[in-house]
Every structure is written in structure tokens, then in C-alpha cells.
Fold this protein.
Amino acid sequence: MEYDPDLNITLIGAGTIGLSFAAFHLSHTLSPSQLTIYDTRPNLKEYVLETLPKFYHGLPISLSFSKIRIAKSLQQAVSNAHIIQESGPENLQIKRDLWVEVEKHAPKEALLWSSTSGIPASQQAQDMTDKTRLLVVHPYNPPHIMPLLELVPAPSTSPQVIERTQEFWRARGRVPIHIKQETTGFVANRLAFALLREAIHLVDLGVVSVPELDKIVESSMGPRWAVAGPFKSYHAGGGVAGLEGFFKNIGGTVQECWDDAGRVNVGKNEGWEEKVLSQTRDVYEVVDTVERDRVMRRLLDVLDEERGRSREKEEGSSLLKSAPETKPSSD
Amino acid sequence: MEYDPDLNITLIGAGTIGLSFAAFHLSHTLSPSQLTIYDTRPNLKEYVLETLPKFYHGLPISLSFSKIRIAKSLQQAVSNAHIIQESGPENLQIKRDLWVEVEKHAPKEALLWSSTSGIPASQQAQDMTDKTRLLVVHPYNPPHIMPLLELVPAPSTSPQVIERTQEFWRARGRVPIHIKQETTGFVANRLAFALLREAIHLVDLGVVSVPELDKIVESSMGPRWAVAGPFKSYHAGGGVAGLEGFFKNIGGTVQECWDDAGRVNVGKNEGWEEKVLSQTRDVYEVVDTVERDRVMRRLLDVLDEERGRSREKEEGSSLLKSAPETKPSSD
């Protein structure tokens, strides 16, 4: 996708996710010609101008700010948009009604995206006339930093819409992954929650404390999986026999862990809650996410650089070939 | 712990783990005065001299190599050791017999460590006279790069032994975590295997492919958890309401994912295997772990630097305070 001088993006919902998307679009070399923001909150303009700079961490932003348009109505917000992304409340009825209204006023070719972390596109689209244009584009928070976008279409979403959506994000150096079924929680959260459940279980048993568990993850699978995902990692762990070798060597322990996890009560009873919640509160108080995001950005920069390097070295068969193509100019 | 000019470390077992530990010790500013390696394989000396340099990736190693002693017998290997770590075959009887022999010939004060990923110290120590000195010191592979060490004592292990072991690793910039129960798979593997199970399940369902799943993890929770573990991350995700706020906001989805995971058949039937194994094999062939380890080391260097910086800034209450103190001189 070439840089399009006439690209209008509309964001509905100016919460944390919406404004983080705004920061991403405005700071990218392929920024839209116009970024429209719509939200029902009072004093929207003041709020946006005050809040948006927090996502920039001191970068120069005066130029890109001129592209922002604050819409006074939904109709005005969507009437000339090429892309419309909603990051509103997680409420099915609100989203259903929203898309009916959007459909009335938006251009026919506009792409319709929902940031929802849980409400499938097929349910959101139920009252629409044309159900082919809507899909979930679920970011990993915060989207102005994290590369992942889970694209979760409904069965009614057209393949062209999925393709155009992938193309848009790939051109911007992001990692859009097409999720083939409307699974509960999609994929990233499901994976993370599976680990979280086991983590809660181990803290509840007293095997480790909350900060010890965090340190374990930060010193082992965190950095490992930033570089190579679980399948690639265990495939490497099996030597020349690959993943199969890994299961031959250590499959017994894996199975024992899984059997043990099958007996986990987390989610069935509430006993764990006070222990885990109070430890977390006591140890971390309020986390400085600006600091966290700055460090995460540094790591992602290193990974971007390495992926660029390995792509140059041997196009198509390198360790890190599954890579973003470019990165935001603000990084 | 000050640099001890008279520190003799003995490594039993010269496989990948043993030699990776050797590389770590020899490349550290607090390197031992003598590093003894013992293994029953033939031509051990040639093998070690040939294989060890692979762990260094081109660093100058001539100096530290002079500290290596190849032992001709177990008795010779342990007789003047301060620390003895075994990284031998994962076989209970072999380990039991080994520790009985070690006990006969090693100094009384020597620390006895096992690298096992699955055989508890209490079982390994069963035939020993003094069961207070043995504990599991389980690395996250490869130990010359990854900071985590899971210290898993038996109920019979003395608190002093645990403390001395923690002190040893902390002084070397590593992250030794005391695991309070001899849980199956300890903690790191249990957490990773919980996620792996869900990953296999999603690939088996056809929701995503193996490389797509890896990309999802590499672009989201990998870099996130390298910087802040799951509890800290979700605590931040809940805003000022912390982890409790997180569960209030999204607890419904979390519970639905957990309920869904409860129906997972992975491990109960074998149907998933061919699908997952063949996809992994086809996509990744043989992973270049030298390249992977080099990139991981760069990420860990960034994290080390940031932790040092945040420690300077506000001792004791910073985002990244749970940090290694120093790092190997080879980094």
C-alpha cells in the first residue's frame, strides 16, 4: 500500500485504546491526511489535546496534531472516512446500535474495525444490512507500542476486507494475524490467561510469591519468547529431532504438569483472590507504565533491527524472518 | 560475596547444560580459581576444548581456559571442590548413586547442586547420610545466557545451604528464586507448559497455524513479560484499581477462557501431534540457536542496563527493581 495522501481515519471512542491508536497513526510516516476522533464525552477537544501527548513521551508532535479533527456527531465523524475503528465500551447492544448508525452514514468502501477484546464481529454485525465489512482488530495494549493486531473476522466478513486490513497494518510495520475462528478471548489473551491461571495456582499454593513469579517470567520465558515463540523455542530445544525430540525427552514431565493443572481449582473457588490481590497491591503499588513502555519500546527496537538485519542476510529462511517491515517514525 | 581466589567449582556431566554452566563461570569476573569437569565420555578433554568455544561466540577465551581441569575420576573431581553441580542423565538411580559417591569424597562444606528439570532433591538424596546439603539448581536453558535459576530444596535441605546458594548466584548477577515446594516441573516449566498446552489446542482447532501462534507471542506477551511479569502487567492493566480492577473489567472473559481451557483434550488424546509436529518441522527446519542466543543476549543487556539505571534513580521502589546486580564480563 502506497502512502495515500487522501486517507481519512476515524476513531470512535477516546479512551486509552482509542488515543493510543491515535498516537500510533499520527506518529507514523504513513500517517493519515485526517484523523477524526469522536466520543460522547464532554469537552472532547480539550481532553484529547491534554491526554494525547502522554502517549508521546516527549516527542515533537506539533506537526501531526494539525491532522486531528474532533467530530461533533457520529454522522460527521464517519461521512468521509476510509477506515473506522471503534474502541468504545464492551457492551454488545451499544456496539450493535453503533454499527447500524455507522452503516447509514459511512462511505460504502470504508473498513469497519472493532477493538473489542471479547465481543465477536458476528454478534456486533447482527443488525447491519451489509455484514461483509466488519471485523475485530484487537490490539495488544498499548497499540502505539505493541506490534500485534489480532484480526478476527465474522464468517460473513469478506476475504477482501480481511486482506485490505492486513495490508494496511503490514505497511505500517505491525504484525496483523488472521484468527480463523471467533474463539472466546481470541488467541493472545487465551494464551496469557492459561499461564496466568497456573501462576495464580502456584502463588495460592505458596510455591512462590507474586513478585518471585514475575521475576521468574522476566528472567526466562519473557526474553526467550520475545525472540522465538513457544513452538520455535521447543523445536530448538529438541536439537536436530526438533519438537518431536523435545516431547520424547521431556514429554513425561510435560504430561505430569498438564495432569496437575487439570486439578487446578482457580476459577472454581474464590479462595485465591485475597492472597494474590493483596500481594500484588503491596509489592507494586501503582506501576509506572510510562517507564515500562519506554523499556518495551527499546526491546522492540532491538528486535526490529535484528529482523531487518536477518532479512537482509538471507531473504526468506532466517531465524527471525517473520518480521515487521518498517517501524513508526517516532520509535 | 567477595571474589574468592580459592574457589573450586566442579561440574559433573559435560552435556549442553554442563558446558553452558562452564562457559558462564569462566567468562564471569568472579570466575573460580579452578573449574573441574568430569564426565564418563571418552576423550573428554578433546571434547570439552572443541565444544566449549561454541558457547562463547567469538569472545577471547584463552585466559579462562587455563582454569579448566579435566578429572579422571569422580573422586578426583570432587575431593577439593567448594561447589559441585551435576548435569547428568535424568535418571533417578544414577543420581542417587552419584550423590552417595560424591558424599564419600567431597569436603563436608561443599554445596551440592543438581541441574535436573524434574527429579526432586528429596528423591535424589534418599541414600545420602547428610541430606542437608543437596538442592536442585535448575537453570533456564542456556544457563550462560538466561538469568533464571530455580532453587528447589528438599525439606531436608538446610536454610544455610539455600542462603549460600542464593548469595553465590546473586553476586554473579543472576536471578536465583527459592521455590518453596518440590512441585512437579518446578515453576518456570509449569507456567510455560500451561501456555504451550493452550497453544497446541488452538493450533489443533485450526484457529491459527504454528508460525502464526509464535508471531503472536513474539509481538505481544514476549516483550511485555521480558519487562514486567504477568502479575505486574495485569496490575498495571487495571489502572489505579490494580489487579482487582483488571479482574473486575475483564474477569468475565478470563473465566470464559479458563472454562474453555478446562475442556481441552490435549494430553488426553494423541490427535494433535501430527498436525503440530509437522507444521513446526516444515516451517522452522533447524533453528539457528547461536543467532537466537545472540539476540536474547542483546535484549537481556538492555534490561540489565535499564535495571541498573532505575536502581540508581530510586533505590528500592522502581519499576524494574527486581534486577540482576552485575552481568558476566563476556556480555
Summary: The radius of gyration of chain B is 22 Å.
